[in-house]
Design goal:
Layout: H1 3-17, H2 21-25, E1 32-33, E2 39-41, E3 44-46, E4 50-53, E5 55-58, E6 61-64, E7 72-75, H3 81-90, H4 111-121
Antiparallel strand pairs: 1-4, 2-3, 4-7, 5-6
Helix pairs in contact: 1-3, 1-4
């Protein structure tokens, strides 16, 4: 899957939900509900078109979110849903515990490499 799709989805989610990069890189497929119907995820009821922030991934290490207020359920704006659906459909990692944003091997993305790739990929579009 090309980095442009992942990069676009990460930027869009970050801007529309206030998720930080560690929360985005720790987001698992089971915690994203693109349907309009609620689903049960562990002990959480995940409303339709929402996601649950429960863990993060910083430098390849998973952990719980640092502050209680960062553990939350966020509604997904309508503009984000088709992008996430395309990303999830294009991924070869379809398990519920698989990461939404991962390398071609299914491992966590590195935030520094991702930033470099996204900037390099989108350089013609950067306004100076």
């Amino acid at each position: 899957m090309e980095i442009a799709l992942k990069g676009s989805a990460i930027v869009l989610l970050s801007v529309t939900t206030s998720m930080n990069i560690a929360e985005l890189l720790g987001l698992r497929r089971k915690r994203v509900n693109l349907s309009e119907e609620p689903i049960m995820v562990g002990t959480d009821i995940l409303r339709g078109e929402s996601l649950a922030v429960r863990e993060n991934c910083y430098r390849g290490v998973f952990g719980s979110v640092k502050a209680k207020s960062r553990s939350r359920i966020l509604p997904l704006p309508k503009v984000v849903i088709p992008v996430l659906r395309k990303l999830m459909d294009a991924s070869k990692f379809k398990g519920s515990d698989d990461l939404l944003f991962c390398t071609r091997n299914g491992t966590p993305l590195d935030e520094k490499n991702l930033m470099t790739s996204v900037i390099t990929q989108n350089r013609p579009y950067i306004i100076t």
